[in-house]
Amino acid sequence: MIKLLYFASLREALGAAGESLELPAGVASVGALRAHLAARGGAWEVFATSKSLRAAVNQAMAGAEARVAPGDEVAFFPPVTGG
Residue 83 domain-assigned? Predict the structure, then answer.
């Protein structure tokens, strides 16, 4: 299992702050996880269409090639700006 967290407008679009997910076979990177989530369709397609979506694995910023393993916490969030 991995723990997924969704923040800001992403949380609002998906209607959830997070979930636990059994890591599917063949999903071993942030990029593959994004593709898996996007395949759910509907609002989840944001994972395929949003190029600015950020990710963190175990609270460290992570790119698409970052490894994901059972027990990890993966957070997704849009870019944040301050003012």
Answer: no
CATH code where residue 37 lies: 3.10.20.30
Work out the mean pLDDT of the chain and round it to a whole number: 94
- Percent of the residues in the chain that have a pLDDT greater than 70, as a whole number: 96
| Residue 16 forms part of a structural domain | yes
DSSP letters, 12-43, are HHHT-SEEEE---TT--BHHHHHHHHHTT-GG
Can you give the pTM of this predicted structure?
Answer: 0.93
Bridge partners, residue 13, by sequence: none
Average pLDDT over residues 47-70: 96
